[in-house]
Amino acid sequence: MQLSDFDYDLPPELIAQTPAEPRDSSRLMVLNRATQTIETHRLFRDIIELINPGDVLVINTTRVIPARLPAFKQDTGGASEVLLLRQLTPTRWQALVKGRNIKVGSVLTFPNTTITATIAEELDGAERVVEFSEPPGDSLTQIGEMPLPPYIRERAADPERYQTVYSRQQGSAAAPTAGLHFTPDLLIALRDKGVQFANVTLHIGLDTFQPVKVDDITQHKIHSERAELTTQDAEIINRAKLAGGRIIAVGTTSARTLETAALVSAGGDPMNPNQPLDLCPWRPVAAFHADTRLYIYPGYTWRAVDAMITNFHLPKSTLLMMISSLAGREFVLAAYERAKQEKFRFFSFGDSMFIT
User: Fold this and answer.
1) Is the pTM of this model over 0.85?
2) Is the model's pLDDT at 157 over the cut of 80?
3) Would you tell me which CATH number, out of the four given (1.10.260.40, 2.40.50.140, 2.60.40.10, 2.40.10.240), belongs to the domain 68-143?
């Protein structure tokens, strides 16, 4: 398939600049794959009517760190910026680095701290490996900013609005935005209804910030991300799946982790996932803690995910390709056109979609 197959026009005024208040008052579009119908009249809090007792909501508990660090070159004073993507060791990080002539050996300084960072490796484009003079963890809240997407023009008044209410595992460069719609009260109401919960952790990294640059989408190089599903959560999912409950991924990151866990269960390699494998009928997913390069686009065989809660994604993005794989490209693009006509809000702070 071609990259142009996943393009669409979006009026700029439909890009949400602020989140809905309260969180669960955002609008909800429901896509029913079986009937090929689209509902547009619901609010997100109506999700409680659409999820059944025995279903499992799978949530990504990653927490966004203040990963955007203003910086200066030590030798010239030139402005720079470090966007932390992935921790490699306590002092070593994979990052995107802005600035002129940022090469191996360049030393960066940061306001309000004595910590420095030395460029240890040059990777693709602006990607670098940086070595800090000391672990930056405790200082990130002093020197770092929340890395909001570039289409959001104003800094968040409350940084917690770019965190899910269930976030706890520090390490992400972006929020799993499908989960931003949940409130504590809604989660409790779902639990009281008999809905089960399982946790995954996937720290969102470089692909969130990297556009697809090839016309043939099968040639896109997807970057690896660290993901985890514990034994306890895998058991919750497997028991529910065998009992007939639906596995509902909250967001594309949860979906990617679940499908990686199904790959692992079938004996596959998460770093080399493009091999045909049969689903294990008695153990649909397996616990794992590893890097994954699973790239989901139309033609993919879904093994674990039955339904998905997701936001409206950027044109030509791997996330749009993933939901097109689940629901069908033409159906998804028709839904996006309907969303535009009815003034849904798009992207990270925008409205939600339930693919069932």
Assistant:
1) yes
2) no
3) 2.40.10.240
